[in-house]
Amino acid sequence: MFGVVFPDRSFPMDISAFSQIDTFHWILDMNTFVGEAYDQVREICIFLLNSFTLPPDKALAVYIQSPGSEFQFCGAVTTARPSAVLTLNWPEPGGQLQLTGPDTAPVSAKIGVSVEDLVALPSLDVAAEKGVERVAMKVGENLFNYMQSFCGVDGSKLIVPMDILDRWFKKFQERAKRDPNFLKSFRM
């Protein structure tokens, strides 16, 4: 039906690595895969296997769940898009972490996969939209910090030199050229 790969962390795994909940739902317990370091797993590549035909109005949706949190949609694959590399932005763990007792199994992070109606899912570009938003916020924060280092205060107003945007942009471009990891740091 489907397979997954965690880039730099695993060989391809098929559906047998997942626990099947019912006909259309599967769960991968990250505790058995990476232990408590689930949040270090940043990407998943999911793909449909050749022998599986998904109806055109259906999708294989991927969700993640940190311990004690709700499931969060990450993306999906369809027959038109039979594979995808999805970013795993793990939600903050929820309050249920403290509720485990000595006789209960530890709460762990999970990856859920389910067959769903394509129209019921959020846009498949949600991850890309969130990524762009995150990059924009980081660039804006970088600009603000740069401007703050040059500003003076006049009451409740910040006073900055007129050419501050040009100077910041030039410095930003130069750093991006010098350090290939600089722009990558904005995606995290």
Automatic annotation (TrEMBL):
GO biological process: protein import into nucleus
CC terms in the record's Gene Ontology section: cytosol; nucleus
Residue ranges annotated for the Hikeshi-like N-terminal domain, each copy included: 18-118
One Gene Ontology molecular-function label: nuclear import signal receptor activity
Residue ranges of domain Hikeshi-like C-terminal in the record: 133-184
Pfam families linked: Hikeshi-like_C (PF21057), Hikeshi-like_N (PF05603)
Lineage top rank: taxon: Eukaryota
Family assignment from sequence similarity: Belongs to the OPI10 family.
Protein name: Hikeshi-like domain-containing protein
